[in-house]
Amino acid sequence: MKSTADERAAMRDVICNLLRSEASESHVRATMTTRSGYDAALWKKLADLGIIGMLIDPEYGGSGLGPIELELIMEETGSVLLCSPFLSSGVLAASLLMSSKNRAVQQRLLPSIADGTTLATVAMTDDRGCWTEAGIGVHAHQVKGHLRLNGVASYVLYGEVSDVFLVVARTSDGLRLYEVTKDDSRFELVPLSMFDPTLRSARLRFADTPARLIEPIDWTSVQKSLDVALIARAGEQVGGTRRIFDMTIAYSKTRFQFGRPIGGFQAMKHWAADLLIDVESSISAARYAADRMANQIDQSQEALYLAAFACSDAYTKISAATIQMHGGIGFTWEHPAHLYARRARAYAQLFGSPSYYREQYLRQLGA
Amino acid sequence: MMMRDDAEDDTAALRKEVRTWLESNWDSSLPPEQDRWNLSPATKAWLVKVFEAGWAVPTWPADWHGRGLTESQADAVAEEFGRIGAPGARQDRSNFIVRTIYHHADPGLKRSIVPALLKREKGICLLYSEPSAGSDLAGIRTRADIDGTGYLINGQKVWTSGAAFADYALLLARTDWDAPKHAGLTVFLFPMHQAGVEVRPLRQITDETHFNEVFLTNARVEAIQILGGLNNGWRVLQAALAYERTALGDQSRAARHSAISDDLIGLARQYGRLSDNALRQELAGVIALRKLHALNGARARELGDNNEPSPLVSLGKLAMSRILHEEARIRTSIVGVETLLCGPDHPLADDANFLAFNAYFTSIGGGTDQIQRNIISERILDLPREPDPDRNIPFRQTRSG
């Protein structure tokens, strides 16, 4: 299902209004210090609006939307640094399950993911955090006729609050996708201390842990859900980038030194002009990648990799400039600049680094 | 989504129409022009065909030799022409001088010259910059003094492309020395073929001579040749410069010798450098710049920013300048020590050296990168303007040098 431009504008308004009133900076700061790292009441509202289940088919209680709408929503959530497990549950896990061939599992899990009552997450990389097939650190094998998982999965987003873990594991016969639930006590979960306090992740260690087989899976299917997550990531990066750039320009007009606004100094003006090219380019890259994926046109992979590094680089660069351009106030914990810089640094590594995606981009171009 | 699907269908039909037209009209044996200011009769004949078919200015109305297309439809036309290397389409964007005349001249003046310029029956050049008025263009000192029904022009202009082949010029001259600098300027459609106009070629850092100096000594122009009103030259010029920046943001000159110089991956492969991971990282970054620039352009057009001169186009020129310098840097690094050499025996080195120097055409011409950054920060970001001590005093009291 595709939305019209009017529907998308309306969608943007709805989420924008909700986040403006319920995800203010002080709210984000309060939420980021809680153990769970998200606000259950706001989560419910997002679910009621159909946002948590946006990628899930209406058949399973979702809204059945695609990458274009996802990118648009994420621009808004990224702009306020929304603390939520949407990326892990509504995007990564939901996409992986949507492409599953196991209808029983879909029917059992997707409706409650869509309505927000189940939090799901995906465990697919070990401590190296490379989000490639080679990075899978969990093995499955039979022990006395029972299926058991062993190994480590790290950087599992919102692991501590998740109900269901979709675990990608190696077997002697290719990859398999397994389901482990939090009630299963036979695995160890350690919440990781995050440099970005608005994010949560955990390290899971499996030791002869029982698991339920969902299906044999190939890496391409995992990669496809990761691709959707990259669109979401790009959207959040772009939203954050734009927000802090606007914030910085506004500040430079009101901060007076030497009797004039600091934004009037050419050192600032010229820097800002150069950064504006990066801001605009990252917006273009994210929206283009979403559009290519939605329409399944040629070069969708190329567009995705381009967005993956262009949006990461822009967010990192502009959030760093934000701190510098604010001067002393930008060096304080009370100012939000560092929160955006932390998110920028986190997202530049989560799901793959800019240099990794530059290399993938070049390969797509035939080099 | 439906709206866009319809638009896509329309564009597909349009592309088909253009292709069909090109198939039955384009002569692929037409040699590419070496000098864009001095075209062959065959190329001129082709431009007449393009003009008559309405492809020269697709966004203009039919009674102005266009087809009333939207900006993105016109871009599709340009892409189809570009695909086979056929020139002459989409001059409503690329031919910034004609675009200025079209939007600012009186109907009579327009009718008398615009078609001839589009067909290149007549040539035109720019007489804006002066030796002491570069970035500060409002500081020009070429005078236009009333003389009967017209004006006598005296002064010196510089950076004039194609002056030797031009029939006309857009001339910026001072008509009021007691008004502040921006308020005493007038733009004329100035006839070049007359006594009192002396053109001297200027040798560039690329060892080419596209630019000229033009000396004006008691040259004459009639008052009816004024564009956009007496003493209203600064406003006309702002539009003209914005059109020029749009064109400069779209343009980059191809390599002179080998097409492979423009294909950075191909070049790196030829020099055995594709296994160099440090170079691969840089290569991806530089190639991305050009792609992102194209995406920004497409998005700006979708937003309809380009119907009128918008400051956003300054972003395009600044971005293109960065692209050209970055591409030149990586091209030089790939070709390496061979860039010590030049001449036709070393075509790839020659391309690398030429393009490295020619990148300054874009980063200086049409307003330097530094002036573009002022424009972007002041007009798009609304940051405070640069101090301009001579802005409000009579021009004759200002200092120059």
What does this 3D model show about the protein?
The complex is a heterodimer of chains A (367) and B (401). In chain A, strand 2 and strand 3 (146-157) form a beta hairpin. In chain A, strands 1-4-5-8 form a four-stranded mixed beta sheet, with helices on one face. In chain A, strands 2-3-7-6 form a four-stranded antiparallel beta sheet, with no helix packed on it. Chain A has a two-stranded antiparallel sheet with strand order 9-10. Chain A has 367 residues and is of the alpha+beta class. Chain A has eleven helices and ten strands. By secondary structure, chain B is α+β, with helices and mostly antiparallel strands. Chain B is 45% helix and 14% strand. In chain B, the strands form two sheets. A four-stranded mixed beta sheet of chain B has the order 1-4-5-8. A four-stranded antiparallel beta sheet of chain B has the order 2-3-7-6, with no helix packed on it. In chain B, a hairpin with an 8-residue loop joins strand 6 (197-202) and strand 7. The longest helix of chain B has 26 residues, at 277-302. The chains are: A alpha+beta (367), B alpha+beta (401). The A-B interface holds A 2-5, 249, 252-253, 260-261, 263-264, 266, 268-270, 272-274, 276-277, 280-281, 283-285, 287-288, 306, 309-310, 355, 358-359, 361-362, 365-367 and B 1-4, 265, 268-269, 274, 277, 280-281, 283-285, 287-288, 291-293, 295-296, 298-299, 315, 318-319, 322, 370, 372-374, 376-378, 380-386.
Low-confidence segments of chain B, given as residue ranges, are 1-5
Please outline the major beta sheet of chain A: 4 strands, mixed
Give the largest interface pair and sizes.
A-B, 38 and 41 residues
Number of strands of chain B: 8
What count of helical segments of chain A does DSSP give?
11
Helicity of chain A, in percent? 40-55%
| Classification by helices and strands of chain B | alpha+beta
Low-pLDDT residue intervals, each spanning 5 or more residues of chain A: none
Give the radius of gyration of chain B. Answer: 22 Å
Q: How far apart, in Å, are the first and last alpha carbons of chain A?
A: 36 Å
Biggest sheet strand line-up of chain A? 1-4-5-8
- Strand percentage of chain A, roughly? 15-25%
How many domain modules of chain B? 3
**Helix-strand topology string of chain B:** HHHHHHEEEEEEEEHHHHHH
What class would the helix/strand composition of chain A place it in? alpha+beta
